[in-house]
Amino acid sequence: MKLFRHDKFLYEKRNGEQIVQVLQRDNRRELRFGNHITQSAISLDAPDLLQLEYTRAMMAAFLLAPRATDILHIGLGAGSLARFIHQHFPGSRQVLVELSPEVIEVAYRYFDLPESPRLRVVVDEGARFLRNCPESFHLIFLDAFLAGGVSRHLESARFFASARDRLAPGGWLVNNVWGSDRENLNAVKINLAGVFNRLYSLSVRADSNVIFFAGNTSDPPSMASVKSLAEQFSGSMPLDLPGFAAKLTAVPTTQDGQERVVG
Questions:
Q1: What pLDDT score was predicted for residue 153?
Q2: What is the pLDDT of residues 110-140, one digit of tens each?
Q3: Are 19 and 141 in the same domain?
Q4: CA-to-CA distance for 143 and 77, rounded, in angstroms?
Q5: Whether 28 and 115 share a structural domain
Q6: Is 79 helix (H, G, I), strand (E, B) or coil?
């Protein structure tokens, strides 16, 4: 791993094959898993801002489900998204599922994850949690990256069906996928399109993250309402939601069969 003059490690611990690291560069703190990829980041000068663009793009989920209150995260990282939602949506209740106790430790210790009755952290594997969970959620955020990417079983049609079954009516699965692996990206898209009847993609930038928004609803929000909500939310939180709304692209599903481009 290449380090720069002012870089320093605040934390490093190995658990089996995974290395959990916290690196500080000036006033920026990063979570890494033993390689050069930044999993999460926080600015000590502006801790309430989402530093990584893909996390900001995932917030477009609230344009599709603006009344979402019950939210599940599979994969905690440093808890940046959960912390942001906790601040800006005071009616939200979030369940955070994370397999690594070390990741949970650093999220609290180094990245200001709030200790709050509205945030419940569960140490578990994501697929197992879904199989045993009796609850339903308006939004399920899937961002369960390891050093080498996402475990393939968390991108299978079987897993997506389990997630669909845990969604409340009108709910959406929000899936962060690494865009540079085109073969895997296409496989994830096919699996989602076979399970859900509504599917949108949002490309963060070329060869980087692609966010999929998958739902089962006969009455999706109109694009006019999505764009109107984007303008409203942008007045109350530091996000370019109108820009993300303009980039949402509908993807054909097996039930739908027609590609619709939003914009």
A1: 84
A2: 999 999 999 999 999 999 999 999 999 999 9
A3: no
A4: 8
A5: no
A6: coil
